[in-house]
Amino acid sequence: AQSVAQPEDQVNVAEGNPLTVKCTYSVSGNPYLFWYVQYPNRGLQFLLKYITGDNLVKGSYGFEAEFNKSQTSFHLKKPSALVSDSALYFCAVRDTFGNEKLTFGTGTRLTIIP
Amino acid sequence: DVKVTQSSRYLVKRTGEKVFLECVQDMDHENMFWYRQDPGLGLRLIYFSYDVKMKEKGDIPEGYSVSREKKERFSLILESASTNQTSMYLCASTSGGTGVGYEQYFGPGTRLTVT
């Protein structure tokens, strides 16, 4: 079985400050990990993924995420937050040798305060 | 660019009606998915299909069925709509391949209200 936890429903950050959105996961084998963003009344947009290799993954809009196998975490980060980063963020996981089925977290609403 | 389109952005139906939600992708993807999104619950998988005429139940298939007659099209059917099926429905697609971590591409969503 695979699962994802996003422990914070809401994260508020001042504009220009660094931001972190947390994600922990559980899979039987090795994970593929994904971050998606959803703007109001829109579908999900892919931000970045960890497949293998370097633990620090860079993605769209200046976001990055760090894969930590010992802590089973994949936290999303950005050095300097923009008001336009305000959105709903989802972490997702699947086992590397399972089918294509992704399991999503419950989402974290990120609000950047001007 | 990959494009996933859904037939309606907003839909209002009455209890007991049969409802069809259509999804089309233009990238020749093998895998297609239907999710529903509810506040506080995230995305939950209803059904997915890994090939034409092939389907597998997801986590919450009760009250739904699907059809995939052509590779590019995946339909979600609510046999008899109920108020607890009021939700945002998202379609997604991705390439296949064991051991390859392709991302899923999502449509804009259909917000269904059942009254």
The figure for the number of domains of chain B is 1
Name the CATH architecture of chain B.
Sandwich
Q: Total strand count of chain B, please?
A: 11
Reported for the largest beta sheet of chain B, the result is:
7 strands, mixed
Report the average pLDDT across residues of chain A: 93
For this structure, the CATH topology of chain A is: Immunoglobulin-like
Beginning-to-end CA distance, first to last residue of chain A? 41 Å
Which regions of chain A are unreliable across 5 or more consecutive residues at pLDDT < 50?
A: none
Describe the structure.
Helices cover 0% and strands 53% of the residues of chain A. Chain A has 114 residues and is an all-beta fold. Chain A has one domain: Immunoglobulin-like. In chain A, a hairpin with a 4-residue loop joins strand 8 and strand 9. In chain B, the strands form 2 sheets. In chain B, strands 2, 4, 5, 6, 9, 10 and 11 form a 7-stranded mixed sheet that branches. In chain B, strands 1-3-8-7 form a 4-stranded antiparallel sheet, with no helix packed on it. Chain B has a single domain, classed as Immunoglobulins (Immunoglobulin-like). In chain B, strand 5 and strand 6 form a beta hairpin. Chain B is mainly beta and 115 residues long. Chain B starts with a strand and ends with a strand. At the A-B interface, strand 5, strand 6 and strand 11 of A face strand 4, strand 5, strand 9 and strand 10 of B.
Task: Looking at this protein, list some descriptive labels.
heterodimer, A: 114 residues, mainly beta, Immunoglobulin-like, six-stranded mixed beta sheet, four-stranded antiparallel beta sheet, 12 strands, 0% helix, globular, B: 115 residues, seven-stranded mixed beta sheet, 11 strands, 56% strand
Summarize this entry quickly.
The complex is a heterodimer of chains A (114) and B (115). Chain A has 114 residues and is mainly beta.
Secondary-structure topology with pairs:
The complex is a heterodimer of chains A (114) and B (115).
Chain A: E1 3-5, E2 10-14, E3 19-21, E4 24-26, E5 31-38, E6 44-50, E7 56-58, E8 64-68, E9 73-78, E10 87-95, E11 103-104, E12 108-113
Parallel strand pairs in A: 2-12
Antiparallel strand pairs in A: 1-4, 3-9, 5-6, 5-10, 7-8, 8-9, 10-11, 10-12
Chain B: E1 4-6, E2 10-13, E3 19-25, E4 31-38, E5 42-51, E6 54-57, E7 64-70, E8 73-78, E9 87-94, E10 105-106, E11 110-114
Parallel strand pairs in B: 2-11
Antiparallel strand pairs in B: 1-3, 3-8, 4-5, 4-9, 5-6, 7-8, 9-10, 9-11
